[in-house]
């Protein structure tokens, strides 16, 4: 049963209940608030141990301390208001805070041979650890006849001397003119005859540990109803679940997500997840971007009420469009660290009451008041919260209303919105969770040795693909048609194309299907050609069909072929132009942002090739391009020489020799018209180099693509980790408590709806 049927079912159930109440008075006493607010799942607090990280002043690139001038929430600061941040070592791991005993660092005996060449030296003042400095061992130097360890400060590159121990000697005698050594650094144990061989005489500090206790989280009936309405149809029909299994599936998703967030919060406190100035600035910006979008709607409502026009303060667009739109110009995606705590007051032009127009200031202030009304309604209409949370949010809303009593209060309220928990709940929680999740994935990748070294992964993957193809050529064919980056081309059997799909309308598709069911193949082909001439073509504008003008297929072909022939001598220009035309004309969602396109077999299935995976007309026309390319012919010349291809009027202008970047004539399938572009033709036995571009369009290199593959591996590891977290806590009594009995009646109704109405719905659809 489809989701709309579920929605109808819920409406029907509620309608029956309400009707019974009206007709019988006391027979049914239905309270929607109490029903939808019933707790279905409780995830009780869990305790997670973590090593407390060292923190120090957060410094900008010039070494200056960073302050929090507007006291933005979420930042840890010292007594002078300087932002504090976790200290990390050279490898990006948080430096633990050592435990003190009688004012001194507490150690345990470490291994005689500690791997690595780095050591952290802690400073203690007045019984407190005040800092941590990382040093790198660089070798041994001879000073006045004494051999000393040379250490370099990782931060400022200053040099220090450390003690050494030789062979079986328990110590070393220093010359009178030997420089002082820095206490606290590990002693370097050297072979008597070889300075290059060393191990560390090392004492390991004992780190402070803390316990993070998560908050209790409840999930409510209304949330589970929404999940059933939106997702149950898919998992019941596609995965074969029954409604009880769907219930357990959703419940597991709920507590898995809750416990994963708890683990990620603990990892953030431990410093394993970076959540500093940059990340918190992103959250606050997201909050105010959402607030401003809502205010823009409110301003328009106010303007409509009074017959006014809202002054232009920037153009906004809806992110959701029918077709994708081209992205912005490629930017450097390197991590850009911020060294200033962001406040909305840093952008005074967006703050309320700062306009030169008094009327607009008045509109903004009224908008803020109505926005508070909107927040109040959002809390009132939200059944998925506890009474304690609701009371807290209502207290905050009451405080907002007090500020709204004066002009200055309204102006100040806008700048303080980010301090309210209710605003963060509405607009900041999702962004914060996403940032922490991404940070945890990076940490998880490191901890599970999913290397981010692209060169190593490249070498490993290339060797793997060569070995797999040599063992069985089918392994190569599977790789060629898969999602991973192909690094080794074992033979010439596959090549890659893109296309523009200009489709039949829904009515035309339906008419073609009905005609095909009752007529011969030849008659159907003639009928399809007739429909093809009637196809209406719409260009896309901002991701939507521009229906202000319809084009014929001839007009669209003239535009596309003219643009492509103009750049036919330049493969790079042709690639970029065709992608531009994809965003203008194409309707196949699988080809947008698909750099390689579709892999097509060079040998037809009828001649012993792989089973066709595309419409035969599409595959045949793709092979015409491929074969013309191989024979150094034009597409027109190849078709004229071939006994299996006919020449259409569209082929007549395709007289240039086919190259990478050439296009086919429009070819018709049951989907509509396709204009095919030859994207990539490999040479058997070749390997892609690490810095080689994937295609002539030069969008991304093999290295960048492998980086995406690494991200996919990390995503898979994260899913596995979530499952393990869910399993771990599900075995602890009292952590996860579900109340299936409170949902039993609805499960019965869902089961009836799914299993009894399928036949009726199929009949209605047919």
Q: Main attributes?
A:
766 residues, single chain, four-stranded antiparallel beta sheet, alpha+beta, 43% helix, globular
Quaternary organization: single chain
Which outline best applies? globular
**Mean pLDDT level:** 87
Report the biggest beta sheet as strand number plus sense, adding barrel if it closes.
4 strands, antiparallel
Distance between the termini: 14 Å
Q: Ranges with pLDDT <50 over ≥5 residues?
A: 1-28, 313-317, 330-335, 759-766
Number of helices: 21
Strand content: 15-25%
Strand numbers in spatial order across the main sheet: 8-9-10-11
Tell me the helix content.
40-55%
Q: Which class of secondary structure composition applies to the elements? A: alpha+beta
Tell me the radius of gyration: 34 Å
Number of strands: 24
Explained architecture:
With 766 residues, the protein is of the alpha+beta class. The chain is 43% helix and 15% strand. It has 21 helices and 24 strands. The strands form 9 sheets. It has a 4-stranded antiparallel beta sheet with strand order 8-9-10-11, with no helix packed on it. It has a 4-stranded antiparallel beta sheet with strand order 21-18-23-22. A hairpin with a 2-residue loop joins β9 and β10 (146-153). The longest helix is centred in the middle third of the chain and has 30 residues, at 277-306.
Can you lay out the helices and strands and say which pair or pack?
Blueprint: H1 3-24, H2 32-36, E1 39-43, E2 47-51, E3 55-57, E4 84-86, E5 100-101, E6 104-105, E7 107-109, E8 118-125, E9 128-143, E10 146-153, E11 159-162, E12 164-166, E13 187-190, E14 198-201, E15 203-205, E16 209-213, E17 217-220, H3 221-238, H4 243-269, H5 277-306, H6 358-380, H7 387-403, H8 407-416, H9 421-427, H10 429-447, H11 454-471, H12 473-480, E18 494-503, H13 506-518, H14 521-533, E19 540-541, E20 544-545, H15 553-565, H16 571-585, E21 598-601, H17 616-630, H18 635-641, E22 667-669, E23 672-680, H19 702-730, E24 736-738, H20 744-756, H21 758-765
Parallel strand pairs: 12-13
Antiparallel strand pairs: 1-17, 1-24, 2-16, 3-4, 5-6, 7-15, 8-9, 9-10, 10-11, 13-14, 18-21, 18-23, 19-20, 22-23
Helix pairs in contact: 1-3, 3-4, 4-10, 4-19, 5-6, 5-10, 6-7, 10-19, 11-12, 11-19, 13-14, 15-16, 17-18
């Amino acid at each position: 049963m489809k989701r709309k049927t579920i929605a109808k079912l819920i409406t029907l159930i509620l309608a029956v209940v309400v009707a019974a109440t009206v007709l019988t008075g006391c027979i049914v006493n239905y309270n929607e608030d109490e029903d939808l607010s019933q707790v279905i799942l409780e995830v009780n607090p869990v305790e997670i141990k973590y090593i407390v990280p060292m923190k120090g002043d957060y410094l900008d690139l010039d070494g200056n301390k960073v302050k929090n001038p507007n006291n933005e929430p979420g930042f840890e600061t010292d007594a002078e208001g300087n932002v504090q941040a976790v200290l990390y070592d050279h490898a990006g791991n948080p430096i633990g805070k050592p435990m003190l005993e009688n004012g001194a660092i507490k150690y345990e005996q470490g291994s005689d041979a500690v791997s690595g060449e780095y050591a952290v030296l802690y400073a203690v003042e007045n019984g407190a650890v005040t800092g941590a400095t990382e040093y790198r061992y660089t070798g041994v130097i001879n000073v006045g006849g004494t051999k000393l360890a040379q250490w370099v400060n990782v931060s400022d590159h200053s040099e220090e001397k450390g003690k050494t121990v030789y062979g079986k000697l328990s110590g070393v005698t220093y010359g009178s003119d030997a420089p002082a050594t820095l206490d606290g650094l590990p002693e370097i144990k050297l072979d008597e005859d070889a300075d290059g061989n060393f191990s560390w005489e090392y004492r390991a500090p004992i780190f402070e540990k803390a316990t993070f206790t998560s908050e209790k989280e409840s999930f409510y009936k209304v949330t589970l109803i929404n999940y059933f309405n939106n997702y149950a149809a898919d998992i019941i029909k596609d995965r074969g679940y029954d409604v009880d299994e769907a219930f357990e599936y959703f419940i597991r998703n709920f507590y898995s997500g809750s416990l994963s967030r708890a683990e990620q919060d603990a990892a953030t406190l431990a410093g394993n997840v970076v959540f500093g100035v940059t990340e918190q600035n992103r959250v606050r910006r997201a909050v105010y971007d959402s607030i401003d979008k809502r205010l823009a709607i409110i301003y328009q409502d106010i303007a409509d009420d009074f017959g006014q026009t809202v002054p232009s303060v920037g153009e906004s667009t809806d992110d959701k469009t029918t077709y994708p739109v081209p992205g912005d110009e490629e930017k450097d995606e390197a991590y850009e660290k911020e060294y200033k705590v962001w406040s909305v007051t840093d952008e005074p032009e967006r703050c309320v009451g700062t306009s030169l127009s008094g009327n607009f200031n008045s509109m903004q202030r009224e908008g803020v008041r109505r926005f508070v009304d909107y927040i109040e309604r959002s809390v009132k209409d939200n059944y998925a919260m506890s009474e304690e949370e609701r009371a807290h949010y209502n207290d905050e809303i009451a405080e907002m209303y007090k500020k709204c009593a004066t002009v200055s209060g309204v102006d100040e309220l806008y700048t303080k919105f980010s301090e309210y928990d209710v605003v963060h709940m509405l607009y900041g929680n999702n962004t914060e969770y996403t940032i922490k999740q991404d940070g945890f994935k990076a940490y998880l990748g490191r901890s599970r040795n999913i290397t981010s070294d692209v060169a190593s992964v490249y070498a490993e993957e290339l060797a793997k693909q060569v070995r797999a193809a040599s063992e069985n050529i089918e392994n190569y064919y599977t790789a060629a048609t898969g999602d991973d980056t192909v690094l080794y081309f074992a033979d010439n059997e596959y090549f890659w194309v893109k296309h523009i799909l200009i489709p039949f309308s829904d009515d035309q598709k339906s008419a073609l299907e009905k005609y095909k069911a009752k007529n011969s193949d030849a008659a159907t082909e003639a009928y399809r050609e007739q429909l093809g001439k009637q196809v209406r073509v719409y260009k896309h504008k901002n991701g939507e069909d521009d229906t202000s003008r319809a084009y014929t297929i001839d007009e669209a072909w003239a535009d596309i072929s003219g643009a492509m022939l103009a750049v036919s001598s330049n493969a790079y220009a042709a690639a970029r132009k065709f992608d531009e035309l994809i965003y203008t004309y194409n309707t196949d969602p699988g080809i947008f942002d698909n750099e390689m396109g579709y892999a097509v077999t060079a040998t037809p299935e009828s001649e012993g090739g792989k089973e066709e995976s595309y419409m035969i007309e599409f595959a045949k026309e793709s092979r015409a391009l491929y074969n013309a390319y191989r024979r150094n012919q034009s597409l027109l010349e190849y078709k004229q020489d071939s006994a299996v291809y006919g020449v259409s009027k569209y082929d007549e202008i395709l007289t240039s020799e086919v190259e990478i970047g050439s296009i086919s004539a429009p070819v018709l399938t049951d989907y509509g018209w396709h204009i095919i572009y030859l994207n990539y033709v490999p040479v058997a036995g070749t390997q892609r180099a690490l810095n080689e571009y994937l295609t002539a369009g030069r969008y991304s290199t093999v290295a960048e693509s492998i980086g995406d593959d690494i991200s996919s591996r990390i995503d898979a590891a994260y899913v596995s980790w979530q499952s393990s977290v869910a399993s771990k806590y599900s075995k602890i009594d009292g952590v996860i408590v579900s109340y299936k009995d409170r949902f039993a009646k609805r499960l019965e109704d869902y089961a009836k709806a799914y299993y009894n109405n399928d036949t009726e719905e199929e009949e209605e659809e047919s």
